[in-house]
Records
---
Amino acid sequence: MNGSSGELFQRGIELLEKGDCLSALSAFEKSLATNGYTAACQSYISFLKATERGQLNAAISELEDLAGKAPDEPAVYLNLGKLYLKAGRKSQAIETFRKGLGCGKMPEAIRVLEQLGTRKPPVFRFLSRDHFLNKYSGKLLKKLGLR
């Protein structure tokens, strides 16, 4: 794979979108070697290590550290949010995607947030969401068209 670091980075994103994760990982690693360190490139490498090599917790830790070092890089938040989802940490994922959207455009994060949907607040906020009064009151209000 020849080309500049920017071309290698774009190629990595294209390969990732096509589902060719191993080739994408290779492209990102070559981009990092060619251009030197960038937070966006490192975030994709960490994400792919988690998905391809099963290093989920290590990758989450890396990306959390990276978010502290590069708080204005949307790709870091995108990849961290996707890993939170893989780990079953949905509320953290949503919060992370939203934080990333504050840094810049991320169509993929918007798409994921739309798929996840948002929940309305519980009818009785002083009770837990799982409390039977909240469950059945919400269902009743929805049937009546008031919610």
---
Amino acid sequence: MSKNVIRIFALSTLILIVLAGGFWWWRLHRQPTQAGQLTLYGNVDLREVNLAFNGSQRIASIYVEEGDRVTSGQLLAELETQRLEDAFKQAEALALQQGEVLKRLEAGSRIEEIRQAEANANKARVDADNAQLLWERTRELLRDHAVSQQKADDTEAAAKAAIATWKAAQQAWELALAGSRIEDIEAGRAALKAAQANLSLRRQELKDARLYAPADGIIRDRILEPGTMVTPQNPVLILALTNPLWVRAYVSEPDLGKLRLGMKATITTDSYPGKVYDGWVGFISPTAEFTPKTVETTELRTRLVYQVRVFVRQGENELRLGMPATVTIDIEQASIPNPPGAGRS
């Protein structure tokens, strides 16, 4: 056998090996899409919430650890509240005081105060009458030169002073009968509203010293620890919401027309072989984007695709953020009108 024949045989064998390897790779990586079905690949996704206190104090306690499952309304952490409690008590006392002031203004003068003002007015009237009578007598004596001019002047001044005192007492009695002025009452009401608003603010600050779970979920990160001084800009915990749960996948432009909102889908993962999760197409992106590098498909990565969210009905205890998933959709089915969660972004 010549050397040329040997070379040709070796080259042919190499070509066959390469072709066989290429066919095996194609069979391994091709999309196992059956007729009438569309298979998409993506990752499990969910929403996260950065939980922070709406106040600036020192953290007193944190009651959860990373990985803990929490329910909506559950107490997660607390701030130190001694200063907040003192401020609340002070605001409560001021509001109570202003309320009593307004009651006094609205009630007007007490009957005892009115009677006292009346008595003072009557006494002042008698004193004025006596002073006026004494002045008239002194004036007659002055004409007869029985008293000095100084004495007459003093008597006249005393009479005028007594008359002025009577008029003042009379006006005080009338004011007691009339009660508080409308302007004073309105000012008292405004002051009470301000005190009540301040009390409400202090009460809300006490409530904000406690951090509650806004929804069911799992504590993903515990960022800060007790003793740390926090502000509303400092997240304390990160909560991963277990509802809604979806698979973020991507569909190419030729297959985009095969999808409709509400179409039923099945989801499988490598973590739970043979287990199928029911879902539906809840969101189709209106804009195209380049295929993310994390998506493994047989298409070119530079090809434009559209994001699709397939919401999952169950699996919150098994499906994890970022878990690879395979979505299978029967493209010949009828869409579900207004499915739960459709259109959520």
---
Amino acid sequence: MAISEKDIVWVEEPSIGLWEAMYLPAIAGGLATTIRHVFQKPVTEEYPEVKPVLPLNYRGVHRLNRDEQGRVKCVACMLCATACPAHCIDIIGAPTPWEDRDKYPVKFEIDELRCIYCGMCEEACPVDAIELTSIFDLTGLSRQEMIFDKDKLLSVYDKTVQGGKDPARTTRGVLGPASENLVPAERMAWPIDELPSSQVNS
């Protein structure tokens, strides 16, 4: 298809005068913004005494869910590791000793520092084994502490599911099974030192 001159739109380069070349309008605009903020009431969040109110779909620390018999729900299908855009999930599967599934993970690790908390792993899981909770105050003294192995991920489940109720916020919101017993006023967060230390390569 031939392009005619009518289809071409010529854009002229904007001319910069002396006033713009001296950056005076930009400086005046920046000063005006600063002066407006000086007279505004400051907003101070009294953290950690006052916990932030998180949205229902906040994506925080991962957890591995257990089934009705207390076993890890994961079937080592590798779909979460395949869907992960950050490649922060490492799984080694093995034949399971149970009759109701073929495989289970002997190793399941998530690098919480590398993760971008997009929720793709949760959406890819066919058995709802991995979820993102509302735990936001994640800290560690070393990079190794931020690698969550299977025991640590299961301990997050044990901490967030108590008495049949699930106060953790998940990305599944009101759509997933983890939202059945949610109480909107409940918020759950706890420091990393309450979790068991990771046993990498175990």
---
Amino acid sequence: MENRLSGASGWYPLRVSAGGMGRFRQALESSGIESYYRADAFCNICFARSTEHEIDAVISALGSGVTVHYLWDGVTFRPARIPARLMRDFMTVAESHDGSRVYLERVSTLLKDCQRVRVTSGEYSGIEGRLVRIRKTKRVMVALPGDIAVATGYIRPECMEEIL
């Protein structure tokens, strides 16, 4: 019996075997599935915007030459599904031309209690995340399921507001 969530469309993070990213992204594109990938950030993680069912069909069609696995949500024990707004914020920071952004593959559990903020002005206006200190500067970290995160460059305190 198919789970009711597998029909839900959203962004799904997927881990792709070494050397298989090109074939996998081409297969997604051929199926009309939007994807996002940053080789300079996470070399084996791709994000696909679709339903689990459609993504599973693409994975099956690839055959055994490319191994693709969902990143799992540790709470629901289902494939992690990223809300559109969170994914948009992540892509905005990842695509910024600010050379001081930082990609984090393992988000420390100590960062979980950091203050939630919204950037109110500047290049990152509208981004929501956690205020963190990296390399002695305050930044906003946008974290995704699977311990994937990107942090902005320095943001002045007057350009942020706390989210309660």
